[in-house]
Amino acid sequence: MVLEKPCNNMAVSLHREIETQRYQIITIFKMKMTLKNLVIALGLISSTIAFAQEEKVDTLNVHEQRITSLEDGLLQLKKLKFSGYIQAQWQSSQLDSLLNKSNDMKVGTGIYGAEKVAGTKNYNRYGVRRGRLKATYEDFGCQAVIEFDISEGGLKTKDLYLNVLDPWLNTFAIKGGVFDNPFGYEIAYSSSRLESPERSRLIQTLFPDEKTLGSMLTIQAPKTSPWNVLKFETGLVAGNAISKDYKSKKDFVAHLTYNKALETMKFGIGASLYSGTTLQTDTNVYVIKNSAFSRNIGTKPNGFATRQYFGVDGQFSVATDLGLTQIRAEYITGTQPGSATSSASPNGFDPTASGFSASPTYIRKFQGGYINFVQDIADTKHSIVVKYDFYDPNTGVSGDKISYLTSGTTKLGKADMAYSTLGLGYMYRMNNNVRIMAYYDMVSNEKVTLKGFMAKKDLADNVVTVRLQYKF
Description:
Porin
């Protein structure tokens, strides 16, 4: 018994040691398995995260590409600008002794048939005077402009040109196509800003549609330069308004201006020159001698008649407590070739067209101009306008010499009559887009005794214009 007890104790101790080691081995194995599973799990998670990140990066790249594409599209759209305006108006005209409307009416058709009844004193018409749509694209100093005039009368081109500014000095610009004739001030003054319904009679006669076809150079220093106050525009043009060119000889035109802006005042002056020709389609060319037209002996057929203008213009504006005051004036004189019935410059002239008929050329010395006064009423949206313009197409004769319509020994007619117009107007600027105008033109003509006219009396040809304009 004594010997058996120690053996039992040793067996128990050995058993306990074996169990302890087995437990440790199992624990270590479990720990290894746990770590292995953890590593596998972390690997799977890392792979998933990496895959997700890879997908996320790809998605971001796609979005970035799309955003870049949209930005490029917006940038291109910013280079393209659309603008325009619509002028809807109502006009009423007096009727002369022959029941003819004023030539200053610009909407509607003439008066015919039943409207020419006894006692008729005036008539009126609705119309769209101007419906302009303009597209401008600018990029790297280049500018392309397309502008159309749309009305009930149809579609007509107004501007169609390319303008390129030099990228080095930003001083020289070359323009080609159909654009405003670079002569004087009123031609380039936008029709949407005009305080009168139309430009002066002189401008309408010498420069139909205000446009020309040709090429032009503009020289003006950048705005940061003290020489920016000077601007010189010059060009070679076809001289047939916006119609096709019909002659190899080109007309030269130039305009030099000086403009200065102070804190509350602006002023500018300019001088212009136009030197060109018109085609003589007939051997008969008439000039003024002793207050009558006389045939210029020795004139060659299909020659060229001189068309030459000299002009000066000035502008002044000042802001006071009474409101903005603006004064603009222009004077032009020169030599104008025309026909027996008109002193207007060519517009649509095409001697090669089928049915074209040659006619004599009448050379006239002319003068004309305008002065325009605009007064804003304090800081309100109201303005008053007073404008006076005059045009004498033939300074070589007086009214008492004009007795028959291009007949008799003098060959003087209606085309030689002088006109003046006093205009009174009111404007209301509802906002930056909408403007309402009411205007009254009082037209006076040189007193003549033309056949069919009221002798020594002013013709009844005053015009009332009411216009609603929307600009965008």
